[in-house]
Amino acid sequence: AFTRKAEIATHETLFQWNRKNYRQALDSAEKIIEEQPESPVLIQLLAMPRQDLPPEDALRFLNLLANSSAGKKMTWLDLSGLNLEKLGDIRKMKSLRWLDCSGNKLRDLSVLNGMALDFLDCSRNPALAPESIPGSVKTIIR
Fold first, then answer.
1. 92 closest CA partner among 120, 121, 118, 70
2. How many angstroms separate the CA atoms of 130 and 59, rounded?
3. How far apart are CA 131 and CA 59, in angstroms?
4. What is d(CA 26, CA 14) in angstroms, rounded to the nearest whole number?
5. What pLDDT score does 125 carry?
């Protein structure tokens, strides 16, 4: 069960994210996850309207998600339009089968090699090296 304190902290995190105070929101989310590993705060941030994040905040968000208990259970993930330059710790998301990483600034997807993805949308990544796209994915949108 989530405490009232965690609930208030989650609302504050979402408020800061909405105001584009990403670093502050991520600091808060990290504290919430440390105290309550099953908190849905990162999933709630994913559900917020898409915005270009500073690349270091986008990567930090993805790494927090990939290392969280919620992230490790996810079978699908929409990272479109977050301004990602790298996919960081995504390999830790072993249950992932569906990934949309379109509309970012990714150059290399070789980190996805060996993952059991059924679907990958990597379109609208202008600098993406085609040879880095894993061949094992069943459906790829370039």
1. 70
2. 22
3. 22
4. 10
5. 98
Number of other residues whose CB lies within 10 A of the CB of residue 19: 10
- Of 120, 111, 42, 125, the C-alpha closest to 81 is 125
Instruction: Show the CA angle centred on residue 99, arms to residues 136 and 102, nearest 5°.
Output: 105
Q: Please report how many Cα atoms fall inside a 13 Å half-sphere around the Cα of residue 35, on the Cβ side.
A: 16
Structure-block tokens of residue 90: 């995504």
Tell me the pLDDT tens digit for each residue of 43-79. Answer: 999 999 878 899 999 999 999 999 999 999 999 999 9
- How many CB atoms are closer than 10 A to CB 54? 12
